[in-house]
Amino acid sequence: MELWNIEKEYLDAGLAYVCGVDEAGAGPLAGPVYAAAVILPPYCDIPGLNDSKKLTEKKREALFDVICAQAVAYSIARVEAKEIDATDILSARMKAMQLAIDGLGVQPQMALIDGNRDKGKSAAITTPHTLVVGGDGKSASIAAASILAKVSRDRYVVEKLERDYPQYQFAKHKGYGTKLHYEMLDQYGPCAAHRKTFLKKWAEKKA
Known about the structure:
Layout: H1 5-12, E1 18-24, E2 33-39, H2 57-70, E3 73-79, H3 81-86, H4 89-102, E4 110-114, E5 129-132, H5 140-164, H6 170-173, H7 179-188, H8 200-206
């Protein structure tokens, strides 16, 4: 139960509801950034639970349903590409994480936030919180949140963006800056789902 060491501190201190929060999709050239917040029952055992980046897509998909079924509460939120361009990716990440926390049916007394940042220029985590660097590999709640955020974003890209903009082949690269994605950008230019602020170097080369 090593993944419960961080939560244990707060549970032992009498806090009943501790949520883990993580985001997915900070780096891609297109699509929204997603975040999830999860409150798990204390010390619940979910076999295979780990940082989403260390799991196969098939394993993440299977764990998604298990986490949703077992969680005391969970919430998933996103901030669109247009808003990322209007503000900045750090602010968008913070806003998505706070929106996810706010969406929980049970309000947490403490939020465990993956990473080392809790505010950007235009958004911040306002819920009482602790930053946990590498939290998705250290905390059960954050690991669960990382899976919900990653699977939700991948589904959106594969189902929505692939359908709306088939020429970019989003299902293959998930919006990341792969060779294929840049080839499609060279051919078709950016679409409404692209983050224009992430395409500055590409645009300079094209100019």
